[in-house]
Design brief:
Layout: H1 2-36, H2 43-57, H3 59-64, H4 80-114, H5 128-153
Helix pairs in contact: 1-2, 2-5, 4-5
Length: about 170
């Protein structure tokens, strides 16, 4: 199961990277169009869609690598039992927020699909397509937070490592 979850987080990170490249491509296409006197409809909207998808798809991978900002000012000055209780509470609260975000993101994409909702721009993109990036990313993030909560419940010390194997310090 660990291997499968890590592969899902990694795949989401790769998708986020591809969407960042998509953002760059849309910006360069827009700039090139202005310089060469042609216009491609929707480049600004597609750049925004790609940026949003990249942000949401990167959440789980960033969490699992320990690169989210953690404020440990209180945790560093508590005993082990209090620290464990605070970590449980913060992971449970984060999971609740992530599940709500995932639920409403999935619901929004589903409603946009059912109502045939399209963007207001000249490209007239069906909105459920760009909303899938947010829905998928927030769902994977909720799974990653549940994974972290299970680790805390088991009493495992969360040791995040960078790509070079060094402990990440992002406090």
């Amino acid at each position: 199961m660990r291997h499968l979850l890590d592969r899902v987080y990694g795949a989401a990170a790769w998708a986020a990277a591809l969407f960042m490249i998509g953002t760059l491509a849309m910006i360069l296409l827009s700039i090139g169009g202005r310089l060469l006197d042609f216009h491609v409809r929707g480049t600004d909207a597609y750049a925004g869609y790609c940026m949003a998808a990249a942000a949401f798809l990167a959440l789980a991978h960033t969490l699992k690598r320990g690169e989210h900002i953690r404020v440990t000012l209180v945790l560093d000055h508590t005993g082990p039992r209090t620290r464990h209780a605070l970590e449980l509470w913060s992971h449970a609260a984060g999971l609740l927020c992530a599940v709500l975000l995932a639920w409403f993101s999935l619901r929004l994409a589903w409603q946009s699909f059912n109502f045939n909702d399209i963007s207001q721009g000249t490209d007239a993109t069906p909105l459920w397509i760009p909303q899938l990036g947010m829905a998928l990313g927030s769902t994977i993030f909720a799974i990653a937070l549940a994974d972290e909560l299970v680790a805390v419940l088991r009493g495992e010390r969360l040791r995040h490592r960078s790509a070079g194997g060094e402990p990440v310090r992002s406090e």
